[in-house]
Design goal:
Oligomer: single chain
CATH architecture: 4-Layer Sandwich
Number of helices: 2
Helix content: 10-25%
Strand order of the largest sheet: 3-2-5-6
Strand content: 15-25%
CATH topology: Phosphatase 2c, domain 1
CATH class: Alpha Beta
């Protein structure tokens, strides 16, 4: 069982290898920005199966632009995640980072953090 609490971060992705990721949206707003930022039910519970993967990332992965000024976005990152989801975790991580870099075609404008977890 995954219990995920997020405060305005991009949606986490839960993926069954090879399938389109399920997006898990934050139930709360950015902490410190609004007086009622945290929902009464601030976390989401998701049942994971062995082999399922969870991808948690910062907005530096989605809020990047290609030379035509198109933003990759959550959908673009979701496709990269799907395409790499059958690789080992280390290879998947590297391919996600490399795929975003190819899209961006230049240095990152924002910080980038990525966490991958596989259910056993």
């Amino acid at each position: 069982m995954l219990e995920l609490a997020s405060a305005g971060h991009p949606p986490a992705m839960v993926i069954h290898p090879g399938e389109k990721p399920q997006l898990v949206e934050s139930r709360s707003a950015v902490l410190g920005l609004l007086p009622d930022a945290v929902d009464v039910e601030a976390s989401t519970k998701i049942q994971l199966e062995p082999g399922d993967r969870v991808v948690i990332y910062s907005d530096g992965f989605t809020e990047c632009f290609n030379p035509h000024r198109d933003m990759l976005g959550v959908e673009g990152l979701s496709e990269i995640v799907r395409e790499t989801s059958k690789l080992s975790l280390a290879e998947m991580r590297d391919e996600i980072v490399d795929g975003v870099a190819v899209w961006r075609n230049g240095p990152a404008d924002d910080d980038m953090s990525l966490v991958l977890v596989e259910a056993q």
